[in-house]
Amino acid sequence: MSKLSDLILIKRTLDGNTNAFGILVNRHQDYIYNVVIKMLRNREEAEEIAQDTFIKAYEVLASFKAEAKFPTWLFKIAYRKSLDRIKKNKRSTTLELVENLTEDASMDFENGLAIMLMEERKEIIKNCIQKLPEIEAAIITLYYYEEQSVKEIAEITNLSQDNIKVKLHRSRKLLYSSLENHIQPKILSENGKA
Amino acid sequence: MEKHKAEEEFFKKIIKETGREKASPDFYKNVMRAIEAKQTSKLVYKPLISQNVWIALVLAISLSVFGLFLMTTGFSMNWNFSFMNYISVPKINLSSTMIYAIGFISLFFLQIPFLQNFMRDQYK
Fold first, then answer.
1. What is the pTM of this model?
2. How far is A106 from chain B (nearest CA, A)?
3. Is B46 among the domain residues?
4. Measured between alpha carbons, how far is A102 from B87 in angstroms, rounded to an integer?
5. Do residues B41 and A38 lie in contact, with contact meaning Cβ atoms separated by under 8 Å?
6. Residue A81 and residue A36: Cα distance in Å, rounded?
7. Is the complex ipTM higher than 0.85?
8. Considering only alpha carbons, which residue of chain B is nearest residue A127?
């Protein structure tokens, strides 16, 4: 059976077919949850906000414009809901930024990551993303995991494209410095073995 | 430029490697349950007797009361428009039972808009 497009499923939902919306939930739930958990860092809260995103989407589905991409529209709702929750919880993350990355440091860094075991590496990267400020974490997730363009991310976050580019650059550096703290001891110990 | 692209690719690779976080197995069920609950609460209160039927009913009853009034006042079917010259309020001779009946019916109709609003609020 061919996969029905989001637009057809939206139309069917608007005609009163709740099962069509169920397919949309199944199709997009992990993408939405992934962005929300990166921002909220709490499973229960992320689950609640991601569910609220779909419920809200269902309520305002009639306002969805066919020329837009459904995932981008969903991300926009999820992003706003997550920001509201962050404001409610009144917590935000800041991280010290390493401004100057030399080429040598970059090479060491990549080698350091290569030394690590896959699982260890995954865990460290996840932790480092979690340490990013919420908006940067969302932008990194949308850009690298969900492959949203800078233009789409600007639409989701209501920030200018230039601002997104700056934030992406800043986030990479933040990630870099955070990862570096984990990798440096590895490189040193490997060099010690040699 | 080259370096920037390589850096981009490197980050893409290491971030994607970590994989997506997955929603709980109950996620879908919870969303659909909430949506179904919304669906039921969204049901609009539909009156059993529609507005048109009410209008027809009121008209029919008014006409019957008016007819009854004409019958009791001895109105004849000989249409004579000369009565327009000396219009006077005819004396209505109604039995007390009839007056009570009309009074109760009027009260009943007076209550309908209030009852309708009450029911609408209940179903909101």
1. 0.63
2. 9
3. no
4. 109
5. no
6. 9
7. no
8. B18
